[in-house]
């Protein structure tokens, strides 16, 4: 496997299961810090919260004043398993995750951990307190801030000195760990847990002496060795098509690894966040692309990521917009691409009947949410009530009227009805299978009958019935359902792709449109999910050359620009969140399908 070098100016360094990360970017848009140090952030708080700036003491620092804006005299870098700070060419500190809860750090010069009152709040918004115990424990501190479960900092070797930790007057605080007798020091950062489960599945309790005793049984070098082995095993399982993974394949595996969180709080399953920068949620269509990639790892992680939103399905069948361990939002819906995703997963892994039965029921209810609750007197098809419902938040097709009957929605429901028909037949529910076949065929007919014109698909106001022509790529998303549509219509849509095609892939707005914006979110940039959906429909309908070109251009762009939230369609450079898992997942899906 290619040895990975993590760019800590773009990519959060974490490990599978952890809610902690280190990066020079933190908070909304990465802007809650001056990017001069590495910031220890928690993702137990939505959008991420930088708690400490970590800086080795090469020179005397001013009194605590929040995150320092001066450049650090040290440099930093990381592999998939170990992070380091260097002074010139000498490593002065390094960090490694012992497990999902415990970060171990050691060094030869003091390390400062500074808070910032403008981020955490002043006064009692956060606290750091020395742990008092009758037991013989090393020096320990307890830290928490509003909305966070809290952590312990344990000086396994060395000692703490602290500034402002016991006062409410100044929220800028500093912890320094240093050697007490010369030599090196060692720190353990341990996230508090709300519940623990034993290997046998029963509730487990732990005390501080238990935690410290467990730490003392594993030396730092062994922790490094185990961390390296854990990621290597994960990447090998996720990349079964190669024994010599490329740098981009390894990076994609790390993007998935570093963005995974353990079950905690509201989350009942292990899940892959979209990012451990600021897009640190699980949105109810983003998860589908991650699930497809994770099918290589095994059926369990794939289905867990599919089912996370379904753990919060409403009586209407609606899914939440987004999920975190502390927040469930139902403000918007998300498009019904679960049929597409499950067909993809089943190309890699067989879903047993025991898993298929409840999955069928859940997807049926979600499909009926659209078919029953999102129809109007002006159409036989379903509609969105806001751009966010489609996942294309600000696409230009929503400019004239946000409440639209959209061709992509019908296409997704066609595929989902087909998956339900096939699954019902496999479950020996013949009548239900026939009903879903009828729904599938009706939707395919009505999509063409209502929304196809000589110029391609259009959208329709669900309030007035007015047809609205659009220059958004969204009107070509029905290519995902190409096998269900008349061949002349598919051929015409393939021709229309030229209006959106650059050397890097498919722009989301026509290139000659006056509404095109290079960094306009859904008004121009290339997006991984759109690429995956259109490519899959082209391939299934026999347009292999076009599908191959789209796949190759997307992968080449990722080889250069990494896994961004979206990309400038003309330049191929990344926009917005710079480590976004659905881009990594689509890359992995394409790499797998190119081989298998």
TrEMBL record:
<keyword id="KW-0378">Hydrolase</keyword>
<dbReference type="GO" id="GO:0005789">
    <property type="term" value="C:endoplasmic reticulum membrane"/>
</dbReference>
<dbReference type="InterPro" id="IPR004888">
    <property type="entry name" value="Glycoside_hydrolase_63"/>
</dbReference>
<comment type="similarity">
    <text>Belongs to the glycosyl hydrolase 63 family.</text>
</comment>
<keyword id="KW-0326">Glycosidase</keyword>
<dbReference type="GO" id="GO:0006487">
    <property type="term" value="P:protein N-linked glycosylation"/>
</dbReference>
<protein>
    <submittedName>
        <fullName>Six-hairpin glycosidase-like protein</fullName>
    </submittedName>
</protein>
<dbReference type="InterPro" id="IPR008928">
    <property type="entry name" value="6-hairpin_glycosidase_sf"/>
</dbReference>
<dbReference type="GO" id="GO:0009311">
    <property type="term" value="P:oligosaccharide metabolic process"/>
</dbReference>
<dbReference type="InterPro" id="IPR054491">
    <property type="entry name" value="MGH1-like_GH"/>
</dbReference>
<dbReference type="GO" id="GO:0004573">
    <property type="term" value="F:Glc3Man9GlcNAc2 oligosaccharide glucosidase activity"/>
</dbReference>
<dbReference type="Pfam" id="PF22422">
    <property type="entry name" value="MGH1-like_GH"/>
</dbReference>
<dbReference type="InterPro" id="IPR012341">
    <property type="entry name" value="6hp_glycosidase-like_sf"/>
</dbReference>
<feature type="domain" description="Mannosylglycerate hydrolase MGH1-like glycoside hydrolase">
    <location>
        <begin position="281"/>
        <end position="582"/>
    </location>
</feature>
